[in-house]
Amino acid sequence: MPAEHFDAIVVGAGPSGNAAAYTMGKAGLNVLQIDRGEYPGSKNVQGAILYADALERIIPDFRETAPLERHVVEQRFWMLSEKSHTGTHHRSDTFNEEKPNRYTILRAQFDKWFSKQVREAGVTLITETTVTELVKNEVGKVIGVLTDREGGPVYADVVVLAEGVNGLVGQRSGLRSEIKPQHVALAVKETHFLPEETVRERFNLADEDEGVVIEVLGSVSSGMVGTGFLYTNKESISIGVGCLVADFAREKIPPYELLDRFKNHPSVKPLLKGAEMKEYVAHLIPEGGYDAIPQLTGDGWLIVGDAGQFVNAVHREGSNLAMTSGRLAGESLIALKAQGLPATNENLKLYRDALEDSVVIKDLKKYRKIPGLLEKNRQLFTTYPALLNRSMNAFLRVDGRDKRSKEAEILKGLKTARGNWLNVAFDMLKLARAWR
Amino acid sequence: MTDKTNGSKSPRMEERLYQNRYQVDEGRPHVKINHQPGGDSEELKALIKICPAGCYSINEDGQVEVAADGCMECGTCRIVCQATGELEWSYPRGGYGILFKFG
User: Fold this and answer.
1) Single pTM value for the model
2) Which of the ends of chain A has fewer CB neighbours closer than 10 A, N or C?
3) For A48-62, how does the pLDDT look when each residue is reduced to its tens digit (9 = 90+)?
4) Are both A158 and A186 inside the same structural domain?
5) Which residue range or ranges hold the ETF-QO/FixC ubiquinone-binding domain (chain A) (predicted)?
6) Which of A107, A181, A280 sits opposite B16 (nearest CB)?
């Protein structure tokens, strides 16, 4: 390991670590970044949607060189039951703008690109190296890291923990507590390859740059708190499903069986026809929201990205919050360095305040009550999607019965599904209040 | 170092994981089970069903065993069993383990 003393060590080369390292490297700080993968990205998993805004604030011209799949022109939201789906679509030509807002990406390739920008900004990157623990001085301040490489510890003024949702360094060094099974989702995903024209035709896309994303609620999670997704890449489709780990542990449903059922759903199967599956992945997603955020700073260390639970589960946003937190951490450390101030917990208030003032904490605060609500109101994943599909089906089917009788039947179905009207009203009220 | 897929019991799982790239650290498994005197916990047994890579199975003695060659390093087992103390979980040495092509 390098013998020199660094301004900062960044643990991990995902979106948050890369954002932090890039920001500091660009400003001339002496930064060491350590990743355990063979190449940066080889240990990283995401759906994946890239939200341009967060990256644009770090690398304004990223579109010129980044490996982007398709920009999203249409979002479909499906409520799934065993044989049906009912949903809404939003498609708009305004998404075909000069600088599109959302892209599908393949994370292993995107992260490799991001890492190249980081190294070009002057950051020293060491791969194939796992950080095993933090080194502290006699008063408990973090002063460096130990790795599984020979050569002893490597020292820095501050350690940025960008180690992801299942990061062990922070936990084993006693900086953050263990994640709870009800605060984290397990997602499994497959990447299915198809010719580019086939993707285009199947999803009604104008060209190789337009893309569709489908988010799915209902029978896809088999009664557990979870969702499914299907994203179009240039020559492939990413399809996955994720549910709370606590629910998987209780229901003992194999995640890959859930995925197989989703793939074979009559609404999904034709979209995947003839595709060749080339990768199967699994990853955890922090879903505990605001109340699951750990202590974010201490003497000589701070946390960014998934390790800080910065995921907005309602809006499926994570990598953008990761990049934003990484950038804010980088900017805060640059400011401290410029003022000649050490990275003590007190001085790192700069980072905590910047986060509070950003979309990261503002949005997580807004949806603070959602994780608890979903856990206690599983009817939102079971009863309502099933009911919606039954109702739509009855409404559309022409079978000689008069419309008034049909409407009465639909309303009766809604009432009996939840016992009485009061429960239905309460469900809506609870959801509205948690959302607000 | 060799590219290798795991020896999971389910043929369908084998087919699925065959698509993945691994750098197996021979002889240095990164997940180990410490069986407790009172028998395997419900949490540990649940892993037979919910490990996404099918790494867990029951052996002839009725004990849960783990073969982590196909592990995708998600951490589900670690989180489910954190309270029981039955799992010793660390990341593979740098450069080893799963290598995502698309992620």
Assistant:
1) 0.94
2) C
3) 999 999 999 999 999
4) no
5) 209-283
6) A280
